[in-house]
């Protein structure tokens, strides 16, 4: 049988995982970066010293043996199972913490005065609305940025309803309508 050869990097990685991370391989020596980490893990798994669990790796029994350590016994949780009064106290404390913490208030988002966003909103609130070309001329944005702003920033973040309609000249005009206003034009979907 061949002698087990363990590189210094493999030894450091396994030892650190065993002593600090309950066997989870989450740390590498400072000299091991990027793709080299994947190679170290690949080598550990190939030799049976580590195994993959989803996107994480952990030390196997053979990995503990190769570094001269024993796998720690799982910590017993049975002590808490028999003490129902302790569990009730913990549940009551957690409930009081939840009641004591106020729900965070969401601040309504608005545009800064004079910003490009505020200028575009002003254009869209005009009765005549605005075309993509007009907004481009004002902001210097590309057409896809203008349309993305309608869907992303205005509708999703600011809660504004942007509608579009094709005018007699064949140009598509966009407007912001106030909530509850009836508009016979196409509402932009996300």
* Biggest β-sheet strands, sense, barrel: 3 strands, antiparallel
The CATH class of the domain at 116-187 is identified as Mainly Alpha
The rounded Rg comes to: 31 Å
Give the overall form: elongated
User: What would the average pLDDT be, to the nearest integer?
Assistant: 79
Task: Report the CATH topology name of the domain at 116-187.
Answer: Arc Repressor Mutant, subunit A
Query: How many distinct beta strands?
Result: 5
Question: Which sequence of SSEs, written as H and E, runs from N to C?
Answer: HHEEHHHHHHEEE
Structural class: alpha+beta
What's the assembly state of these chains? single chain
Number of helices: 8
Percent in helix: 40-55%
CATH architecture of the domain at 116-187: Orthogonal Bundle
* Strand coverage percent: 5-15%
- Sheet with the most strands: spatial strand order: 4-3-5
Q: In whole angstroms, how far apart are the ends?
A: 64 Å
Descriptors:
single chain; 190 residues; alpha+beta; Arc Repressor Mutant, subunit A; three-stranded antiparallel β-sheet; two-stranded antiparallel sheet; 8 helices; 5 strands; 45% helix
In short:
The protein has helices at 8-20, 35-46, 61-66, 78-81, 84-100, 116-125, 132-139, 143-157; strands at 50-53, 56-59, 161-166, 172-177, 186-187. It has 190 residues and is of the alpha+beta class. Among the domains are: 8-66, no CATH class; 116-187, Arc Repressor Mutant, subunit A.
């Amino acid at each position: 049988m061949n002698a087990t050869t363990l590189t210094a990097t493999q030894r450091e990685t396994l030892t650190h995982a065993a002593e600090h991370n309950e066997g989870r391989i989450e740390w590498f020596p400072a000299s091991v970066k990027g793709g080299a980490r994947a190679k170290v893990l690949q080598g550990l798994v190939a030799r049976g010293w580590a195994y993959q669990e989803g996107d994480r790796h952990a030390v196997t029994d053979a990995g503990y043996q190769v570094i001269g350590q024993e796998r720690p016994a799982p910590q017993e949780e049975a002590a808490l199972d028999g003490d129902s009064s302790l569990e009730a106290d913990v549940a009551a404390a957690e409930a009081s913490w939840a009641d004591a913490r106020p729900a965070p208030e969401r601040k309504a988002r608005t545009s800064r005065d004079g910003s490009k966003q505020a200028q575009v909103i002003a254009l869209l609130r005009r009765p005549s609305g605005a075309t993509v070309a007009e907004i481009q001329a004002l902001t210097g944005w590309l057409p896809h940025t203008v349309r993305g702003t309608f869907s992303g920033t205005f509708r999703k973040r600011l809660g504004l309803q942007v509608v579009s309609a094709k005018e007699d000249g064949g140009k598509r005009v966009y407007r912001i309508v106030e909530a509850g206003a009836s508009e016979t034009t196409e509402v932009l979907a996300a």
